Amino acid sequence: MRRLLPVACIAAARRDDRTIALLYILYRRSDPLCCPTGGGKIVRFRWNVTRLVSLDGIPTNAFSAPVHR
User: Fold this and answer.
1) Which of 2, 3, 7, 62 is most buried, judged by most C-beta within 10 A?
2) Distance of CA 62 to the CA centre of its chain
């Protein structure tokens, strides 16, 4: 089982019966939590009757990355 990792800011962008798109707000290394400057990435997930499956890459949560969630 995968462990869920913290995300500073995420929002539902759109959905239909089996798919939801989430907008991850991205931070640069020097950004405070109040002021992200890394843009955003939409990640789609699909329900396959037993679990949600990511259809796109999920942004990293590694603070050492140039841009992270």
Assistant:
1) 7
2) 13
